[in-house]
Design brief:
The protein is α/β, with parallel strands linked by helices. It is built from 15 helices and twelve strands.
Length: 353
C-alpha cells in the first residue's frame, strides 16, 4: 500500500476541504487538523508514517513539531505559505530564524508570486509551485438566475468583503466610494460585508459624509449568503493596506466580477490583469479608484469574462496538481541538522498570535 501524503491545517474550513478533496482524488492523503487536537503532530505522523508532509508555515507549534519530525525521519517536508515581505515590518533576527527553518523544507507550495519572491529572498532554493490559497470556484460560479440577496440588500451594488479591522481597507473603500459618488452619473450603493472593532467608526464616517443611506452594513454572513452577494455585485473593492493573499479576490473573480484591489493584497499580483478584469490601485488614491469603478461598470461584460477565464485556472485542481508534483520532486532536505535542531528547540514555544 502506498504511503499517504499528510496534509496539515489548523482547521479545515470550506476552501481547505475543497483543496483536500482535489488532492485526495490524485492520491492517498491523510489530513490532520491540529487546532484543539489532543493528539500531537508527532504522534499523528508516527501513526500514519507518511511519504511526505505538507505543513502550513512554521509560526505554530504543531508546524514546527511536524518539521522536526520530518527531519528526524528523513521525510520530505513541503512548506505551504502565503507570507510575503510586506505583510509586517521585518527584522533581521526574525528573518534569520526563518531562513534557517526554511532549509529544513524540501519544497514549497506558495499562494502566488509575492510569496515565491519572499521565501526565495530568504534563501529558499527548493522547488516552488503556486496555488496554496485557491478557492472552490464551483461554489461561486455565476448561474443563469442569480440567487436573491439577503433581506435589506439592494439589487445592484459595489461590494467589499473583509473583517472590519484597519489593515483590511474598509476606510479606504469608503474614501473611494465618496469620490465615486461625486463623479458617477448614477452611483450604485455600497455593501460592506464583515464585522469587527472598526464597524462603529465606519458607520459614523458614512453619516458624517452624508451617504449613510447608500452604504449597507451587512455584518458577518454565512458563506452561502456571501456567495449570493457576489452574484449581483457590480464589482469588488478590496483596498487593503496589507493582506497576505486575499481570498475574497479569488471568490470575486470566480463569480465573474471586476476587481479593484490594492498592491498590498498578494492575490492582486496574480489574479488581476490590469485593464482586463480589474485594476490595482493605491488605497491612498481614492479619486483614481473612483475612476476605475466607473471603468469597470462600463466594461462589465468584458471584465467578467476575463475574471472567469482566470478563475478557471486557480481552482482546487491547481492546488492538487502542484502539491502532488512537489511530492514527486521532493527529497529529504539536504542540510537538515541545523534546521532540525532549531525546529526542535522552537517546537515548545507558544503559537504566535
Amino acid at each position: 500500500m502506498t504511503a499517504p501524503l499528510a496534509l496539515l491545517a489548523a482547521r479545515f474550513e470550506p476552501h481547505h476541504l475543497a483543496r483536500l478533496r482535489a488532492a485526495s482524488a490524485r492520491g492517498p492523503v491523510t489530513p490532520f487538523e491540529f487546532a484543539g487536537s489532543e493528539v500531537t503532530a508527532s504522534a499523528f505522523l508516527d501513526l500514519k508514517q507518511p511519504r511526505a508532509v505538507a505543513i502550513p508555515g512554521y509560526s505554530r507549534r504543531a508546524c514546527r513539531e511536524a518539521l522536526a519530525w520530518c527531519l528526524r525521519r528523513r521525510v520530505p517536508a513541503i512548506l505551504m505559505t502565503d507570507s510575503k515581505a510586506d505583510d509586517f515590518p521585518r527584522r533581521a533576527p526574525g528573518e534569520s530564524v526563518k531562513a534557517a527553518l526554511l532549509r529544513g523544507f524540501s519544497a514549497a507550495l506558495v499562494s502566488g508570486s509575492r510569496s515565491r519572491e519572499y521565501i526565495q529572498a530568504l534563501g529558499f532554493d527548493g522547488a516552488v509551485r503556486d496555488g496554496y490559497d485557491v478557492v472552490d470556484v464551483e461554489v461561486f460560479r455565476p448561474g443563469a438566475d442569480p440567487p436573491t440577496p439577503p433581506p435589506g440588500i439592494p439589487p445592484r451594488y459595489w461590494l467589499a468583503v473583509a473583517r472590519m479591522v484597519p489593515r483590511k481597507g474598509h476606510a479606504a473603500a469608503l474614501d473611494a466610494y465618496g469620490s465615486y459618488r461625486r463623479i458617477a452619473d448614477s452611483p450604485l450603493p455600497l455593501v460592506l460585508v464583515g464585522d469587527g472593532p472598526q464597524r462603529e467608526g465606519l458607520e459614523q464616517q458614512c453619516r458624517d459624509r452624508g451617504f449613510a443611506t447608500s452604504v449597507h452594513f451587512a455584518g458577518g454572513l454565512p458563506p452561502g449568503d456571501v456567495a449570493a452577494l457576489y452574484q449581483r455585485a457590480a464589482g469588488l473593492l478590496h483596498l487593503a493596506e496589507r493582506d497576505q493573499w486575499g481570498l475574497v479576490i479569488g471568490e470575486a473573480i470566480a463569480s465573474g466580477l471586476p476587481v479593484i484591489a490594492s498592491p498590498g493584497a498578494g492575490a492582486a499580483w496574480d489574479l488581476i490583469v490590469e485593464g482586463r478584469n480589474g485594476f490595482v490601485v493605491d488605497p491612498a488614491r481614492p479619486a483614481l479608484a473612483a475612476e476605475r469603478m466607473i471603468d469597470c461598470e462600463a466594461r462589465r461584460a468584458e471584465f467578467s469574462a476575463e475574471s472567469l477565464r482566470i478563475a478557471a485556472a486557480w481552482g482546487p485542481e491547481r492546488f492538487a496538481a502542484h502539491l502532488w508534483e512537489l511530492v514527486e520532486l521532493a527529497k529529504p532536505a539536504r542540510a537538515p541538522l541545523a534546521a532540525r535542531l532549531l525546529a526542535e528547540a522552537l517546537a515548545p514555544w507558544p503559537d504566535r498570535p
